[in-house]
Design a protein that fits this description.
The complex is a heterodimer of chains A (about 425) and B (about 350).
Chain A lengths: L3 E3 L1 H23 L2 H7 L18 H20 L3 H18 L6 H15 L8 H4 L8 E3 H22 L2 H5 L4 H4 L10 H4 L2 H23 L1 H21 L6 H8 L8 H6 L14 H19 L8 H4 L14 E11 L2 E5 L7 H7 L3 H12 L5 E10 L5 E2 L14 H4 L5
Antiparallel strand pairs in A: 1-2, 3-4, 3-5, 5-6
Chain B lengths: L1 H15 L5 H36 L3 H20 L8 H4 L3 H4 L6 H9 L6 H6 L7 H9 L3 H4 L2 H26 L5 H8 L2 H27 L20 H17 L6 H8 L1 H19 L5 H7 L1 H25 L15
Classes of the chains: A alpha+beta (about 425), B mainly alpha (about 350).
Chain lengths: ~425, ~350
């Protein structure tokens, strides 16, 4: 792990990551999401322990995004890359923590990766840091740097594959059986997408791909084909589901890290870089790296230790790489009992349509909304939510007789078991 | 070749079960429901304008009755076209604010009549509050005794308000069908079929949400601590029940337009149970309303059992559309994919 390998592939990883990060930030400006997702909503749903995180007013929020844009550019250029990566990690984490309804798997992955880059010497070549003499322009990095980046990319596929090993995905081809027919107007492939068999084929191929692609990428003989398959896979998902944003781009570029570390030199016919000798890694760093790897394995699997189906209760969902695995649609109303009267109250009108759509299917967010409703009443507030999951008929998700605002009822006390 | 033939046949059979093509469903809804509904509303509102003008020119019991009949026909047609009010030309032109802002502000109308303002088309079109014009104002002005109705000021407001409403409805109808930027073409060709379907399903849901949560629900004390009949939208003509029936008929129109290429058949292709339940609930609610006799504000108290059943049916229908239909057709209501990444 400490043997020196070419620094080229890790530098390309840094450059690609920075550029895609910049695209991500530009998209926030271009689509007006800074306002619609962060500034305009008068209320934001919070994560446990992070209810102190709030959005800023418009000029400051824009400033945050300008700073994030500069940070991503600096990462790509390799200018003060540790500071830039840190700023990007903290800034994007802040943006993500503002409103839980904005959670996205690939934002989470980018926060983790930016954090990782703070600690990795990925600026030894093709960086302003090296050019300006801030770091020695060395053509090599310890092998563990490349392997940690490979782990960072590979875990997404593996755990996304594990998450696909569920009856809905394998035996009902859901949610693809719901999503694909809605895209049957697409040129050329449209009629195929309407066929039930297509959803089944893609579901199984998708699960097989996610579970095994890392292995194929690691094997020299299959690497190129696996990479081409990976790019095709992501291109297809981007064409079918354009709203997945930069995820296909960042994963396709990041997968280049599975090629030999000197592949850029080999590809562009340049030298292989100077090879040096590395010293042993300090035990503290070894420990931290080990902790990180363990955490990245435990976090996606933690929902197995929580009673109930993660796709139904939402408990343990974040960070579990349930990528495009669940189609959930819901409606919720609140039951207020006060002074001997019981009546139904709709969710507050100031929640955005997007917040409403996400909230109505997530028990934790329903409970936060119940508290909002309860702020206007002194009685009890229950929730009556109906949710349809993966093509099934809508069924009752919550027990409306349980008061959600007094005490802290656990999810198991008011979320009805999955059908 | 034989194997390929069998495979092709299987694919054809399997693809048939996928239901009607969404673009055909959208075209059917546009051509067989939305455009006819909008055009019919415009025609009836023009007839109301003419009947009101005739009455004010030659006041008589007969001409007043004719104006009232024209108002009833116009209101039925307008309410039936309510399903077109939440997207397209009606929202761009803000048609609702000129034709049927609810509820009418009776005190404001009386104040206007007592003022010195010159009441004409321009005044009503540009300088009058939405709640002081439209079908609600015309209803208030023409459903009363002949001498009150034929007085100069009420007549000026009634003719001007009905003329403004007719003009707005005609403009909306033309925006659907005429010119290079006709919304019918946008709806059926430019927009994705899913976005167009989301508009229609979203409109159905909005109507049901308003009726169940903010009108009937409040009146029956289901969405308010105590029953509150003032939440009902019903004027002097006492046609609250007919208004609801017309709105539900509009929903029914959009579900069935196109026969085999209809929205209900598309839903059926994804879930036969959901399609059956939607139809049963809609039929049940309409039959319940149809069985009522008298103004809505009276039957809420007089026949609470039927009203509770109607509310239950409509509430269930609202949830069914918001959850099951949206889920099975993979629609997004209220916001679009460009409102943020997913995944």
């Amino acid at each position: 792990m400490t043997r020196p390998v070419s620094a080229a592939s890790s530098a390309v990883f840094r450059i690609g990551f920075g550029l895609v990060g910049l695209v991500l930030i530009v998209r926030f400006f271009a689509y007006g999401w800074i306002d619609t997702l962060l500034v305009d909503p008068p209320f934001h749903f919070t994560y446990p322990g992070f209810d102190w995180v709030d959005s800023l007013s418009a000029p400051w929020m824009y400033l945050v995004f300008i700073l994030l844009g500069l940070a991503t550019a600096a990462v790509a250029l390799g200018y003060r890359h540790r500071l830039a990566s840190g700023v990007f990690a903290v800034g994007l984490a802040y943006v993500e923590l503002i409103d839980r309804t904005n959670y996205l798997n690939h934002y989470y992955w980018m926060v983790l990766t930016a954090t990782l880059l703070v600690f990795l010497p990925v600026n030894r070549v093709w960086s302003l840091d090296a050019r300006l003499g801030r770091v020695s322009e060395l053509g090599w990095v310890p092998a563990w740097v490349v392997w940690l980046l490979r782990f960072q990319v590979g875990m997404v596929y593996f755990f996304a594959g594990v998450a696909k090993l569920n009856p809905d995905w394998l035996f009902r081809a859901e949610p693809l059986a719901t999503w694909l027919p809605a895209r049957s107007e697409m040129v050329l492939v449209g009629p195929l997408l309407a066929l039930p068999a297509t959803a089944f084929i893609l579901s199984w191929v998708g699960a097989f791909f996610d579970l095994t692609v890392v292995g194929w990428l690691l094997l020299p003989r299959t690497r190129l084909i696996a990479f081409l398959a990976l790019v095709s896979f992501h291109t297809t998902t981007w064409l079918l589901f354009p709203s997945i944003g930069v995820f296909p781009l960042i994963m396709s570029l990041s997968a280049l890290v599975f090629f030999p570390p000197d592949w850029p030199f080999a590809l562009f016919g340049a030298g292989t870089g100077r090879v040096g000798v590395t010293s042993r890694l300090h035990p503290v760093w070894v420990g931290l790296a080990g902790l990180y790897v363990v955490a990245m394995v435990v976090i996606p699997l933690r929902h197995f230790a929580i009673p109930g189906d993660v796709r139904w209760t939402g408990e343990g969902y974040q960070g579990s790489w349930q990528v495009m695995l669940t189609d959930k649609t819901g409606a919720v109303e609140f039951v207020v009992t006060e002074d001997g009267h019981t009546w139904i109250v709709p969710p507050p009108g100031y929640l955005t349509d997007r917040q409403l759509a996400v909230m109505a299917t997530d028990p934790a967010l329903i409970q936060q909304t119940a508290r909002l409703v309860g702020a206007d009443h002194h009685g009890t507030v229950g929730a009556r939510a109906i949710v349809a999951v993966n093509g099934r008929a809508g069924v009752v998700l919550t027990d409306p007789s349980v008061d959600l605002i007094h005490g802290q009822p656990g999810v198991d006390q008011w979320v009805i078991a999955a059908p | 070749v034989k194997r390929l033939g069998v495979l092709f046949a299987v694919l054809v059979v399997v693809s048939c079960s996928a239901g009607p093509e969404r673009s055909l469903v959208v075209a059917s809804i546009a051509d067989d429901a939305l455009v006819p509904l909008v055009e019919n509303a415009a025609t009836r509102l023009v007839e109301l304008k003419e009947a009101t003008s005739r009455f004010c020119a030659e006041p008589s019991e007969e001409s007043l009755l004719a104006a009232q009949d024209a108002w009833v026909a116009a209101e039925d047609a307008w309410e039936r076209s309510e399903v077109t009010a939440y997207f397209g030309p009606a929202t761009m032109l803000r048609t609702e604010s000129k034709v049927d802002f609810e509820p009418a502000d009776i005190a404001g109308i009386d104040e206007l009549l007592a003022s010195d303002a010159v009441i004409d088309f321009d005044f009503v079109d540009n300088r009058t509050a939405a709640s002081n014009r439209g079908l609600g104002a015309v209803e208030y002005l023409i459903f009363r005794a002949l001498d009150e109705t034929s007085a100069e000021r009420p007549c000026e407001l009634a003719t001007s308000a009905s003329a403004v409403a007719a003009s707005a409805a005609e403009e909306t109808g033309k925006a659907w069908t005429e010119g290079d930027e006709a919304f019918r073409a946008t709806f059926t060709e430019t927009m994705t079929a899913n976005d167009a379907l989301a508009d229609v399903v979203g409109a159905q849901h909005e109507i049901l949400k308003r009726v169940t949560l903010f009108e009937l629900g409040r009146a029956l004390g289901v969405t308010a601590p105590e029953p509150d009949v003032t939440a009902l939208v019903e004027g002097k003509a006492g046609r609250g029940v007919d208004r609801l029936l017309s709105q539900l008929a509009g929903i029914d129109d959009t579900l069935h337009a196109g026969g085999d290429s209809s929205l209900i058949e598309l839903i059926r292709s994804r879930s036969g149970d959901a399609a059956e339940e939607i139809q049963a609930l809609l039929d049940g609610a309409m039959a319940g309303l149809d069985s009522l006799d008298g103004p809505l504000s009276e039957v809420v108290d007089g026949d609470p059992t039927t009203m509770d059943e109607v509310l239950d049916d409509l509430s269930r229908l609202r949830d069914l559309i918001e959850v099951d239909v949206v889920s099975r057709l993979d629609l997004t209501l209220g916001f679009s994919d460009s409102d943020g990444d997913t995944g």
